[in-house]
Amino acid sequence: MIQSKLPRVGTTIFTRMSTLAAAHGAINLSQGFPDFDAPEALREAMARHVMDGHNQYAPMPGVMRLREQLAAQLQRYRGVSCDPDTEITVVPGATEGIFCAVMACVRPGDEVILLDPCYDSYQPSVELAGGRAVHVPLQGPGFALDRERLQAAVSGRTRLLMINSPHNPSGGVLSREDMLYLEALVERHNLLVISDEVYEHLVFDGRAHHSALQFPALRQRSFALFSFGKTFSVTGWKTGYCIAPPALTTELRKVHQFVSFVAVTPVQLAVADFLAEHPDYPATLAAFYQRKRDLFCAALGQSRFSFTPSAGTYFQLLDYSEISREVDTALCEQWTSERGVAAIPISVFYEQPPPRQLLRFCFAKNDAVLESAAEVLCRI
Ligand SMILES: Cc1ncc(COP(=O)(O)O)c(C=O)c1O
Fold this sequence. Notes:
By secondary structure, the chain is of the alpha/beta class. Helix content is 41%, strand content 14%.
């Protein structure tokens, strides 16, 4: 009989909630994907490359024309240069890139610091590498870094720190001061970093995204992960990329080439074409999603939920402590089947039970869907 290497892992909550929402015909604001389509020029380019016969393996690190566009994007948006040959690897989704980065640097017995709440793939990746996840909760209503606990969590065995900004599920964004603090911390303790920046372009109210690649000591030690799924509304194309210094990239690719070997060819060619023609497209996303956040939040004005509008991502947390004392997982299931709206319980992003009663709602949806969902939520 097989003995599970991940005994605590079941089907992810995202799959469960989406299935439940479909079964009950509920409005699905649970899983993080847009219900609108990608730009037409991108979809056309994808179709064209498939029909033109670009359907065989790409080079292992990714199509060079795409990597050149990605290096140009990094320069354009973050003012940072990188070598597309030795520092960029195109991967089949940020999740795969994160897994390969963890596998590349974590050995049995190593400790990896995760900041709770965190994306659900981090912990299993660490466990499969034989590492031990050390969870440090983010603090207070603002999900701020708890510098004291973070410092105390670092031991002689700590190998890696995993960070995520803009942050899923809280919608928080690390400030420049946070990044400077983290830079000093990882330099002092000689830690590697995985910086999950898949929502890099979704920051609101004039805020800036601070990439780990913009801070020299972080740049030297970080695997930074990005996702076309989020930037181009094509989560089903499952393609992203990792930027890391040459020595880290070499090790990442050693794993990547035996996990998936390559990312999908026509997707890479299509994104390369699209970025060459529309290099400013990512800059339009902040205003686009901010308007959706504002619409959703305004429509919830008369509800009994309390909330602070998200600073980034396409997620909004709502606090239901005035409405119910029920645990969040049970409540999400109940509201999906009985009220017709599906969300994600925040406890699934934590090792320990969360300090507050919060649900995560995805607002990457058409306006009419957001309005209908808010109507339902206002009746609760
Ligand atoms: C924080 C975070 N990281 C990574 C991913 C995964 O991105 P991809 O679909 O490119 O694997 C997601 C997707 O929901 C996410 O929210």
